[in-house]
Design goal:
The protein is α/β, with parallel strands linked by helices. It is about 45% helix and about 15% strand. It folds into three domains: about 1-140, NAD(P)-binding Rossmann-like Domain (Rossmann fold), CATH 3.40.50; about 160-300, Rossmann fold (3-Layer(aba) Sandwich); about 300-485, Succinyl-CoA synthetase domains (Rossmann fold), CATH 3.40.50.261.
Amino acid sequence: MYNDKSYLDLNPLFNPEGIAIIGASNNPGKVGGMTFLTTIIGGFSINHLYPVNHNEEEIFGLKSYKNVKDIPYNVDLAIICVPAFNVKDVIKDCVDKRVKFGVIISAGFSEADDDGRKMEKEIVRIANNGGMRIIGPNCMGISGSKVHLHALMNMLIPKEGGISIVSQSGTLGSLTMATGSIEGLGFSKFVSSGNEADIHTEDLIEYFTEDEDTKVILAFIEGLRDGKRFLNTAKKASEKKPFIVIKGGITEEGAKAASSHTGSMAGSSSVYNALFKQTGIITAIDGDDLVNLAKGFYMLPLPKGRNIGIVSAWGGIGVLTADACAKEGLKIPSLSKKTMDSLNKLLPPFWSRQNPVDMTAAGIYGSWDLFIEINRLVLTDDNIDAVVCMIPLFTSIFKTVLDRMEDTRHYAESMIDFMEDTESEFVKNFVGLKEYKKPLVALNISRRLESKSVTYLEENGIPFYSSSMDAAHVLSKMVQYKEYLDRSNEE
């Protein structure tokens, strides 16, 4: 797949034959201990995992080696967790061992001071001269879910799937995987790129663009060293798959923070906004927006246009959703005569008789099948490109009342048990609406809380949002991306 020499072959990084964790420890309170323990917990084969520590004979039950050169097996990848002043010697040993890639978690380099910057350049020089490439330093590790590789300095192990991330902030990238995994997303590859002394964001984006296991690319960027290269790389990526970026350091204060965090040079928001608009990049506002957008692009087909159908059992929520769609540049068209005639036969005479479709509470109680049929009619309307459905799942919020009850608690528990059973059956049927190949977004302003029904929806490809603005924003970004692809195909 990577015969083109312009691409850096990162296969041994994500699919290593052997991994040495240098600075591994039996103490999970240390970086080397936590990283080694997370790698074991993540499921990487212990037969190809080698701890390296001068002072330990055994680490978490595995034989420990004094030096990477003592390992009698092939090592493609070294995860380096030693103090900064020891990294240079470790790199020399890795070069002698013919290690292909090093992930330097250690901090104290260009993000610290000029001496750290000089040391960083020197270790990269030694590594590259020996045929070794470097991720970091000052990073939080990597993931490659296909081989259960999760060499991370935390235990935020993601679900396996088709999203890949490069993040100049290790924490934001890790939390995105953790939050996304809870909300139905699965991840293929993750790199905390840190200071990017050797391998840069652009190298990783190029790889993800051609990677068949990657369906959506996410990136957190504090600063770029080569704007022209990024522009070309991003354009190629966006033409093949959704590329979602959150950009930090767009203010003077943020730029100062970025410099001290990873040594990055940041830039103004106007420059980056213009750059991103030219390349089809989908911009995220913050971490929550990044996950929201990832859910939409990962779970849904792209809408063919801006026409949105809205279905709700409560009129006020339909109004708020229409407002949100209008603010995001989406349209709320009239429904076709055929759809209107069908709805008139099914709904009470006092329903809204327009889009948004206000079924009224009387229109759903006692008939989940009716609710699904109404959504089917709107989805199949030729005037509609996507549907936002206010889905009445309230069991999770009703449960929060139980702790405030005493003598009457058993009555409420019986009702909630009944509601949970009916909701469970409903969502199993609701996901069948995916067969119509149009984006279908679930909305519930009672927020997510802990809900088996919501989890089921998202694990089966229907994203859930807890505000009208979130739902409208995601659909708007999807429409913009579709329009970008259409323009690109015309050129």
